[in-house]
Amino acid sequence: MIHIDNVRKIYPGFELKASLDVPTGRVTGLVGRNGAGKSTMIKSILGIIKPDGGSVEVLGREASELRPEDKMRMGVALSDSGFSGYLKLSDIACILDKTYSAFNKDRFLAECKRRGLPDGKLIQKYSTGMKAKLRVLVAMCHDAELLIMDEPTAGMDIVARNEILDIIRDYMTDSEDASMLITSHIAGDLESICDDIYLIDNGQIILHEDTDVILSDYAILKLDEATYERFDKEYLLASHKEKFGYRCLTNQRQFYVENYPDAVIEHCGIDDLILMMTEGGR
User: What sign does the dihedral 183-188-194-198 (CA atoms) show?
Assistant: First the structure.
């Protein structure tokens, strides 16, 4: 669905140089700290910015050559986009009805009601969470084959974030052939919905792994200095000096479980992965 080959974009003090693939029927997460390059990647895919090099293919075409009928197959939710605050939900439904041939107005309004979006209010009266849910539902309203979600849960409390993630999970469960690229700096949100994860830092992809592999094979090791010095470091991806000794990241949990039974070995989530891989010491 998306194939990015060595795309480059240069800004003063920042350079993006990365490759990424979103296969058909998969949910791919792009994670990293603020300013790592996630939004630059998204804007390159959407043709909002023109890369300085490399190739960006979307739905089998260069992003700059997408036809209107290609764009109709896509659903996009950007964190800084939205409808005029002076519209109501029924107004938006009418706009979408005229825009997408596959749009089902009754189903859309029913889904909005189910998700707690009132029709009688102006959009400007919606809470931040309501506006975020609306952006996501609009992106899905025409049974999009390819969804691109840029920070859909940004600024949300945990309840609102879970509601948005539920919407995304339900859509992907019902649409088995749909594909999605989703970005977030709250990486833990993506553990339950992404098939694979790309980690970007300072404009470069520094890790790509299946989510299941991260959750099963990766681990955090806590070692005092004496243990660290005699430790087999072949399978360590990152090590950070701490007050107690060293905090280490490995992608070979079982190796250390079997060979170092006295080591403190903890679960590694995606947030842990980001912290370990982006704080230096790789």
Answer: positive
